[in-house]
Amino acid sequence: xxGGLTRRQLLxxxxxxxxxxxxxxxxPPLLGMLIPGGQxxxxxxxxxxxxxxxxxxxxxxxxxxPVRSDATTDYYEITARAATARILPxxxxxxxxxxxxxxxxxIESRSGRRTVVTHRNALPHATAVHLHGGHTPHDxxxxxxxxxxxxxxxxxxxxxxxxxGMPGMSGATFQPQRDYTYPMNQRAATLWYHDHTMGFTxxxxxxxxxxxxxVRDDEEAALGLPHGPRELPLMIADRAFAADGSFAYPALxxxxxxxxxxxxYMNGVLGDVILVNGAPWPVAxxxxxxxxxxxxNGSNARRYRLALDxxxxxxxxxxxxxxxxxxxxxxxxxxxxxxxxxxxxxVVVDFARYPAGTSVRLVNQLGSGSTSxxxxxxxxxxxxxxxxxxxxxxxxxxxxxxxxxxxxxTFVFQKSQNNWTINxxxxxxxxxxxxxxxxxVEIWRxxxxxHHPVHMHLDPFQVVGRNGAAPGAYDAGWKDTVDVLPAQxxxxxxxxxxxxxxxxxxxxxxxxxxxxxMAEFTTE
Length: 524
Prior knowledge:
7-stranded mixed beta sheet; 5-stranded mixed beta sheet; 38% strand; globular
């Protein structure tokens, strides 16, 4: 999409939405076409024949073991490196992966027990690592200019300073390795870690730099939820492939000297192959029992509406038990779930509701053709007894009271002529748009032109309203990423705690993020 909306046009649509007036009043025609659930981005078609669906077995990422442990801390070591993977039959694909795998290995932490991860970089380009959803001090948060030197050292960021509207690149710091310290003073949740390099997060995550980080605690363990082999992490990500089997990505500069994508893909890159844990349209062989599915949208830009096909008798086959920030208060049954990039939903599916021998597809109702299907579950007759359960009460969530908010702040996510902006400005490292006080509740209002999944670092938040009305069907619980549709206004309540310093607010459409839709805030 070229050009941009004026501030007057934007406030006539998104601003009206935020105040509850309704997006139809003054909304530009383009926005009207995109509402309510238009898919952002542009499809990038593969140049190789796509394989038949449901031929690959669902891979499960390996759980990384600590290199050592002491009374308070588990220590891990991870190297980002290139490796060759056979993702498509008969094709070799180079991945950039943590430990050379895509997804990277899963880290499992205990709430209240410190985790330290030493990251090294054997790639030809600098990296940074962000623990998405982590309650983390600023010096371990993966600030996009706190970089791990590329293989052989040197400043591989040369050329970044020429990116229009993103000055301050000279402030980048390079280290041959970085120790990321995670206190883990947070409840059990499905987190993930991924690259967060200034201007290059999109291509580097696209090549494979992402993995799960699960936090466990005693409260969740006591519930009796499905576990062990009946707990499946599912990283869902779309990709396209070039004629040589490599990941296709429309970068402005294939050598990554200059960040960004070609103009046609400014609104996001969509692929035509759906991968789950790095495998195309895989099959999971399951028992007639309850399974916990930790769903993560690891795509750069694609939204999903996931549903089971066929639905179980009576519907409600996706029983949501958790969101980005951990358990809900009570389970909620859905026929379908909508996931924006970076969102996580923990669901329980009871495959005993189907006869043995049934094949159940997980479909994407926002897709078409090859992107309308995600994976398949083949239900067997064995597996032994199912001793799991889903209690009617899962947890207690403290409600943040909007009436006690110390401040209300508005952030407008909008396209400029060449980049993406927040409050009319492209990202400038070191410039803070807000200085919230630790321990105080604030209301943050996000207003959009097109579709923007908004991610906040440091602390989760609670959605308190959409377009002046109640939160949406998928907004329950603690969130760190919220799906803001075209010309919408979403209000969240947040309370930052524990760590003073600079943190980030940004769109998690990675092409938008790389093209300046990011802002800093400083906690005090």
